[in-house]
Structure formats: C-alpha cells, structure tokens
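Weekly structure sync - notes
Attendees: PM, LS, DV (DV joined late)
Agenda: review two folding runs queued last week.

Item 1: First target. Sequence and structure tokens pasted below for the record.
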Amino acid sequence: MTGPGAAAFLPRPAVLLKATRPKTLWAAAAPVLIGWALAYGDGEFHLAAALLAMAGALLIQVATNYHNDYADFLKGTDTEERVGPQRVTAAGLATPEQMRRATILVFGLAVLAGTYLMIRGGWPIVLVGFSAIAFGVLYTAGPKSLAYLGIADFFVLMFFGPVAVGGTYWVQALDMHPMVLVAGLAPGLLSTAILLVNNIRDVDGDREAGKRTLIVRVGRPAGVWLFAGCVVVAALIPVGLLAMGSGRPGALAAAIILLPGSVLLDRLRTVTAPRDLNPVLGRTAQLLLAYAVIFSIGWLVS
C-alpha cells in the first residue's frame, strides 16, 4: 500500500521492521526448531504443519513486540532515559494507534496461519494458539499486566518452552510424549534468561515507572543467580532425557553452551552500566539459538 492514507493507517515498512525487534525472534524460532527435530526423529515430520508452526510462532512474537512497543509508551515506561534498543512509538516514528492496528493485523495473520494447525491438531492447538495470543496481549496490557506484576518470567518459561515445543510436535505427530515436554524446558529456560538480562538492565527505569518485574522484586544479585540457574539447567536437559531413557547421546553436545554461558554470567555479574548489558542480551539470544541448533542436529544424527 502506498499514499497518504496507507501511511496514516500503518507505520512505514522500515519502522514496522524495526519494531519487530529481529534479535528477539530467535526466542520464538528456537523451540519450534527443536519440535521439528523431535518429530523428525520419531518419523512424524509433517512439512506443512512444521512450516505453519514456525510462521505462527514468529507472527505471535512480532505482534507481541508491536503491542509491547506502544503499551509501554502509554504507561510511561519508555522514556528518553531508556537504555535498551529504540522503541518506535517512544521515538515518534509511529503513533500508538498505528502500532495498535499493526498489532491487530499481525495477530490476525497468526490466526490465519494457525487455522490449518487448529483443524489438524484439534482442541489442544486451539487452546495453545489462543492462549499464546492472550499471553502476548496480557504481557503489557492493562493495569495488571504480567510484565508489571513480575510474573511474566513463568509464562515465558512455559510458552517459549514446553508449550511451543509440545505444540510443534503435536501438530505433526498428533501425539505427545513426556520427553517432548522435558526437552521443551531448555528453550523456555534460555528464553527466561534473556528476559532476566533485559530486566536487570532496565531495573532502575522499571522501578521508577512502577513496573514490578521479578528483578525489581528480588534484586539484581538474585537475578544473576537465576540467570545462572536457567543456563545450567537448560544445558543439563539432554542428560535428564538420557536418564529418562528417552534421550539421544548426540544431543549432549548442547551442554557446550555452559562455556559461553559462564562468560555471559561473569559479564552480567560485573558490568554496572546498564547500556553495557545490551551485548549480553544479544549474546544470550545467540546462546538460545546455538542450543536449539546443536541439540537438534545432535538429536537427528544419533
């Protein structure tokens, strides 16, 4: 669409792309990738369902980022003192109404992508799909939003972990095994680690804005230990799967994330300037992607 009318209805494409926060999309893609590997390893890979699961996950993440962009602006969380990546609404690149429309549009596309999955997967996928959308909205919507109450971390663990991996497996195999949900804990934990870094970086601004994140509630030192716990437990998930009798030796290679994870932990513990934590945030997202790729390849070759 071009012309003044289109420009007024939605932000410019470059602004929309910026607002997707591309570096955060790995959190949506990683659990789907693991779900692909688990299904393929069981001889249950279904190409159409696999691709639509990835599309749906990415679209829900993008819509959630759009909603978060304008909701935080309206609540006064995003100010000139923000140390994280620029938000398009706060920067004046888009109006709240434009971002609201973009949010609705992309959530609609997610429902469209998920229609086939809901038909194929039945009520479990209907429940998962609409719960994921509700989580995306409630993350920052309203006076009692999840992010502002300090309980978003649990929902990130579940929706970017067992729910995403389990849902991806289910739409292909139309069946479920406990090992799938256990395997899903790893990307959920690493996604939670990303959120912890984000909230440690933003703790001062969040406290001033009344955003009672988990880090605001428990403090930075506890947050650093929570980060360490997330990385260590995620790395040990393949060991747990083997102990359950459901794992594969090749997936143990994913434990190598403990090495870069320890470096990130040291940076998180010692860096004092919030802006200097931005690289740690990006590398934690890369850690999640690395885990998903190594685990998936290891699962398939062993």
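Item 2: Second target, run right after the first with the same settings.
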Amino acid sequence: MTLDYLRQSLFFFRNHANKLALIQIPFLALVSIVQYQLLQGIDTDTDQIRHSIFISSSLDLALMPVYWGATLLYLRSVLQGEPLGVGQALVMGLACWGRLLLTYILTALAISSGLLLFIVPGIYIGIRLAFAEFYCVMEGKGPLQSISASWNTTKEFFWPLFQGLALIIGLLLAIELTLGQMLNEQQDLMMLVSLVIQFLGVVPTIFAYRLYCVMKEGDRPA
C-alpha cells in the first residue's frame, strides 16, 4: 500500500505543483538570496560566519510557519473540493503562525535529542511526530497537543510513513549530493538546484498528509 500512497502523492504534486510553487518558492528564494549575500565575501572569521548563519536561520525559522501553514491549508482545501487561491492560503496561514512555529521548534528539539542518541531514536521520533503540523494547522491544536496527538496516532502508520519518507527524502538527498559534486564550481546554478530541491521537500509532506487522511478516515494501513 505504501507504493499506492506514493503514487497518489506524486499525482497530487504534479497536478498542483504550480500553486504550491507560488506559495513556497518566493519565501525559499528570499531565504536563499539573503543567505548567499550574507556569506559573500566573508573570510574565515568564525564570529562573522556564526552571525551570518544566525541571521539567515532566524529568517528561515520566522518564514517557515507562513508558507508551510499556507501549504497545508491549500492541501486540505483541494481535498475538500474548494481550492484556495495563493493569497487566501497565505493570509489564512498567518493565523496559525505562532502555534505552528512552536510546534516546529519543539519537534526539532525532540528529533535533535533523539539523533544525539545514536541517530535511530531521532528517526523514530521524527516519524512519530510526522502528523504534528497537521493537527496544529488542520485542527487548531496547540504545540504540545499536536505533538501528543501525532505520537498517539502514528503508531499503526509507522512503517508506511518510514518507508515512504525514507524513499522520498533519500532520493532527494542523493540528487542534491550528485548535482552538488557536478556543479561544485558553479555557485549560481547550484543555488538554483538547491532551491528546486527545497521546493521538492513538499512531496514528503504530501505523502505524510495522505496517510494522515487515511488515519482520519479510520482505515488501517495495509
């Protein structure tokens, strides 16, 4: 069944890539440009590098709940048969900015703590918290409620989630590493490739949302 869910997710992405791109790429491009400008001309001064990374990371963290909230609301609206416009999705996404930001921060801390324990616990925690953002945005739950709900409902979906996410993310990483080696000396082109890979990161989210919908319908994964 995992392959069926993957096919459905890819079909959804192909049909809605244009709208998803309009929601995400302006924000991804802004962060990439700021990061590129901050790191341009910096020497080996560690303090300067840390300062630049802090600024770009803070900007990325601040913008993530905006475009991801809009993305998730757009996914739901399509399945409900009433697709939101890009502007509508972004405006509605702003309403859940605070709680989604905290959900992302707490989830990242939990996964990072697990990764420190020989990696495998971090992967396990990441899979079990895969539904947290959906509970936060779709159902309006707070950060801790969203994380708790995800932990409680992903037990039966662990293997389909693990298989699908490992395949998609592994493929994206392999493509990025391969192209990174090929385009090592072409920074501008590499920046464009990185932007596309970041945008393709919406595919694992679509896959996880597909399984979230299966869970909400009361079906069991095969």
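Discussion on item 2: The two ends are 6 Å apart (CA to CA).
Action: LS to circulate a short write-up before next sync.
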